[in-house]
Amino acid sequence: MKLLGFVSLGLVLVVAGASRAETTVVLKDTHLCCGMCVAAVNKILKTVDGVKGEVDQAGKKVTITAPDAAAAQKALDALAAGGFHGDTGNKDLAIKDDSGAKPGKVKSLTVSGVHDCCGMCNGAIKATLKKVDGVKADTAKAKSDTFEVTGDFDAQELVKALNAAGFHVKVK
Q1: What angle do CA 69, 75, 78 make, to 5 degrees?
Q2: What is the model's pTM?
Q3: Which whole-number Å values give the CA distances from 90 to 14, 72, 100, in the listed order?
Q4: Domains present along the chain, CATH in parentheses
């Protein structure tokens, strides 16, 4: 009887340990203006093995539950590749700055990889660009993931502004 008790306790501890091994990360301030944005995030997360996602459109956040930290980072990387950005508040599990933007002012910059599925996304992108000192014009349009920005502006500041608005981008 004691042996059965020890085996049962051991199984409970193994199951409890396995459930604690899960990693949960919340990506905040992600651009999620419409159902298409939400569907895109869900589709991206389904491509990462073992990852579950919960999208809170109103709260502008994505909660990722993964079997471990490596899978959680893969999910974050996949979201960035899909044009989504946000802040996890965690230096180890975060969307990395892979924009390629160099410091200093530029006259023109091609931005790519941005999630811009609809007019609301595009409006948010254009509103963000207008807030960057020195930006004069852009060619951003809905349903296109690449556009050009012109003026006399700092490339890194432009990327930071788009990231803060929930969009992940790369520069060419």
Answers
A1: 140
A2: 0.87
A3: 27, 12, 22
A4: 20-96 (3.30.70.100), 105-171 (3.30.70.100)
